[in-house]
Amino acid sequence: MPAQIVLEAGMPAPAIDAVATGDGPFRLADHLGKWAVVYFYPRANTPG
Predict the structure, then answer these.
(1) Strand pairing partners for 18?
(2) Beta bridge partners of 27
């Protein structure tokens, strides 16, 4: 499991490589200089 990063408002987003549906993998670095919305949610079946 990757190390956890604590994000606070105003911090730059960390490098994100994720499995995406449709167009293949998603890399945040590929969207540098463009608007992108990245939504983080709690792990499944956990309170929050």
Answers:
(1) 26
(2) 17
Give the pLDDT of residue 40.
67
Q: What is the radius of gyration, based on Cα positions, of the chain?
A: 13
Helix and strand totals (H; E) in the chain: 0, 2
Question: Using alpha carbons only, what angle is made at residue 22 by residues 2 and 42, rounded to the nearest 5 degrees?
Answer: 35
pTM of the model: 0.53
Provide the token pair at 12. 């730059």
Q: Where are the domains of the chain?
A: 15-48
Cα dihedral 23→29→34→37 (10° resolution):
70
Rounded Cα distance between 35 and 1, Å, is 28
